[in-house]
Amino acid sequence: MTTADSRKIADFWFDPICPWAWMTSRWMLEVEKLRPVDTRWHVMSLAVLNENREDLPEKYKQNLANAWRPVRVLIAAAQAHGDKVLGPLYTELGTRFHNQGLPNERSTIEAALVAAGLPVELADAADSDAFDAELRASHQEGISLVGEDVGTPVIAVDGADGERVAFFGPVVTPIPRGEAAARLWDGTILVASTPGFYEIKRTRTAAPSFE
Which of 52, 68, 99, 206 has its CA 20 to 30 A from that of 19? Predict the structure, then answer.
């Protein structure tokens, strides 16, 4: 029988606007059902990651300019109500952004806050830089584990030998369910724990499927 003391913590850094991070986050919820792992949520920011980059498509730059808004609200919510609210608020934001295709605007953020049981006034943080120092610190904590040439999500967990294992991804679609999710977790930890292992990659041929 798995006890609370025997379960591992997987630290998961996300940006709620990233559809691929959303897919991975829903996979982690599947993993929790079949492996002794609990997810601890943290905020990172694609806007911070790509700050001052000039080699990005113009449309992507526009998306990044708007990307500050939900991550600021997440940090403000955690500062006011504790980190425990990050998971539920991420679920409400991600469901609206990705599953429902709603725009990244104040009304969507307000609806997510209400659904997560949080004060709607937290949406004011979207257009304020009051929490940017805390946002940057959270982002840096995650990205420092894997390097600047990756994105979101970043996952860190204690490996079988007790050493901290951190990696970007996995990038996957559709969301693995049940035992398939558990097997992917086992394999990911196995390769990420291998000394000197850095990358497995192939060209993406499908868009995220939010089924």
Answer: 52
